[in-house]
Design a protein that fits this description.
Length: 516
């Protein structure tokens, strides 16, 4: 009934008006009029480019029997001679907040029956979710995962349209996971989702903060707004008895810790990092082509950790996953086992090996900090002696571009980082979207720190050129798109996979070499 669906949601109107709202059975909810079916509740949301209030009439024609709206709507929409069958109109102060409340109620508040862990931050969210999933499965739990690459319900995989879906889809996923037998759910929680209230009304048992660096400023406008959006997970959505797991090496992590403690000295916080002073500390780090070995110090005890993942960023990711696991009582022997069993993570420092004598890596790095971490990790690895032994100094060759219709300010910064840290760079297209690729490339080029680069707008050709110039022992980095299987140009998504292209060009090079 509509009464139950609206319970606790902030809607306006007199008691008499409210009494008329309660006599409707609702079969579904939608915020897109095209998705409305018979006996649906339609929530009109004002988006960045489209206002759902303009489609109320279409929603009613498609079968909506109740409409949630944020501002006034025309009399022609509301008039209906048959008052018994007329749609109910519910006025709210904020449609997005109302949608979150309605969705939670409609799907029977599923988070209250699950252990829900939210992971937010600029970098490391995806990898952390997969490490934590491996830990929880090693603990014998059935796990659901909501993230950038895909959604997973135990071993079943579904395509992810957004890192964090809109509230009806989010709550529907939680409900399906619960019905399917999941006991624990791990969700990436994006800043967009937090700013747009997509995960509101869900109860998070643990909230993880990885780091905060420049990204999404086309949406948030400032780093302060970006931080405040992330902060909501810890200040508004975390259960009062829940635990915040925070990277205390990160400046914004330090700020978050300070703010949380100031508001509640008794709050549950677990900190992690490489610096002394954290609750969970990693040291004695050995980084190699085979992966990572390090020790974790916690409560006066040391734990040996082995991971197939490479690089210091993945030490932090392992620490954040370990912290989340500790917060819900996972034993340390299980944590160590889960970290060691973590499998390949698509597009996250992912090795592509077709038998070539140089290392090829694809990575999702699309921010200045992520690109810095990626190339710095490659520089560290390339300096480690490993087969084949070569007479020259191995090089790091980087291929990258920047997305169109996104924060232009990061483009020259990424150009500077790439050319300063790499031996050679090929600047190419990423997802140009509605922009001209050469205009994006010019913005990148404005920040370059040297002449160690060339421009190749065609991404496939750029990858081929990088592979052709690689010598034994070099590392080729293909950055920016990671797991994505498309390239968006002028509103059209064309099939494109860095992994598939890299395999093709490496295989062709090996065939040519054998033919000589």
């Amino acid at each position: 009934m509509l009464k139950e669906i609206l319970n606790g949601c902030d809607y306006t109107g007199s008691m008499r008006d409210r009494a008329t709202l309660m006599d409707r059975d609702i079969s579904g909810i939608a915020y897109d009029s095209r998705s409305v079916r018979d006996r649906y509740l339609f929530v009109a949301i004002k988006g960045e480019t489209v206002d759902g209030h303009d489609f109320i009439k279409a929603a009613i024609e498609n079968g909506a029997i109740a409409v949630v709206h944020e501002h006034g709507i025309g009399d022609s929409v509301m008039q209906n001679p048959d008052m018994h069958s007329a749609p109910r109109f519910i006025s709210v102060k904020d449609s997005k907040r109302a949608l979150a409340c309605i969705s939670n109620n409609f799907y029977q508040r599923p988070s209250e029956s699950l252990t829900l862990i939210g992971i937010t931050g600029t970098n490391g969210k995806t990898t952390t979710t997969y490490i934590l999933k491996s830990i929880l499965e090693s603990w014998g739990r059935h796990v659901g995962l909501i993230g950038t690459i895909q959604y997973m319900i135990k071993d079943s995989v579904y395509p992810a349209l957004h890192t964090t879906p809109e509230s009806p889809e989010f709550q529907s996923l939680l409900r399906t996971m619960y019905i399917s037998g999941c006991t624990h759910v791990i969700s990436e929680v994006s800043s967009h989702a937090l700013a747009q209230y997509r995960v509101d009304n869900a109860v998070f048992n643990t909230a993880v903060f990885t780091n905060l660096t420049r990204d999404h400023l086309d949406f948030h406008q400032s780093m302060e707004n970006y931080f405040r959006a992330k902060e909501r997970l810890f200040t508004e959505l975390l259960d009062q008895n829940g635990t915040s797991v925070i990277n205390s090496d990160d400046p914004y992590g330090k700020r978050l810790i300070s703010g949380l403690k100031a508001s509640n000295p008794e709050i549950n916080i677990l900190t992690y990092g490489l610096e002394t002073g954290a609750d969970i500390i990693a040291n004695d780090i050995d980084n190699s082509f085979e992966g990572l070995r390090f020790k974790i110090l916690f409560n006066g005890r040391r734990y040996d950790i082995v991971s197939p993942l490479m690089g210091i960023p993945n030490v932090y990711n392992a620490l954040s996953a370990a912290g989340a696991a500790v917060s819900i009582g996972v034993p340390w022997d299980v944590i160590s086992e889960g970290i060691s069993k973590t499998g390949r993570i698509a597009g996250r420092f992912e090795k592509v090996n077709e038998g070539q004598a140089f290392l090829c890596i694809i990575d999702y790095a699309h921010t200045e900090d992520a690109l810095d971490r990626l190339i710095s990790t490659a520089r560290e690895i390339v300096s480690i002696p490993h087969p084949p032994i070569v007479s020259h100094s191995p090089r790091v060759i980087t291929v990258f571009g920047c997305g169109g219709d996104r924060d232009r300010g990061k483009r020259p910064k990424m150009g500077e980082i790439a050319t300063r840290l790499s031996d050679f760079v090929i600047i190419t297209s990423d997802n140009p979207r509605s922009e001209k690729p050469l205009n994006i490339i010019k913005d990148i080029e404005d920040g370059t720190a040297g002449n160690n680069y060339l421009i190749e707008p065609d991404r496939k050709t750029a990858i081929r050129k990088a592979v052709e110039m690689a010598d034994d022992g070099d590392i080729v980095l293909i950055a920016g798109k990671g797991h994505e299987d498309y390239q968006e140009i002028q509103g059209v998504r064309h099939p494109f996979s860095d992994r598939a292209v890299l395999r093709e060009v490496v295989t062709n090079r090996l065939k040519m070499k054998h033919a000589e």
